Amino acid sequence: MKKVALILGFLVVSSSAFAQEKTDLKRSDLQGPAYKNYKPWQHKTIPTAIYSTNKKKSLTGPAYKNYKPWRNTSEVEAVAVNTSGNERQKLMGPAYKNFKPWKKKV
Length: 106
Hints:
Blueprint: H1 2-17, H2 33-36, E1 51-53, H3 62-65, E2 78-80, H4 94-97
Antiparallel strand pairs: 1-2
């Protein structure tokens, strides 16, 4: 019985050891002065693609309460969100500081 428990324990520990993916150097991997003196601009990061859906159900009242998402058979369209360009990145000084994204320029 002890051998079975040890084997199962070993399998659980060994499978969880590979659960997290190590890619590049991350700040969370560092300790001590290396963590304090980390320079993010010296390490390249890989941009992550962000996706959003176009269709959203606008249900209210009893229809929202009784909605069963697992019965939904319609296809969901995923659209890539463009995060590379930004108006604020082009600004400098006080214009950058006082940028208000909710005000639309005509």
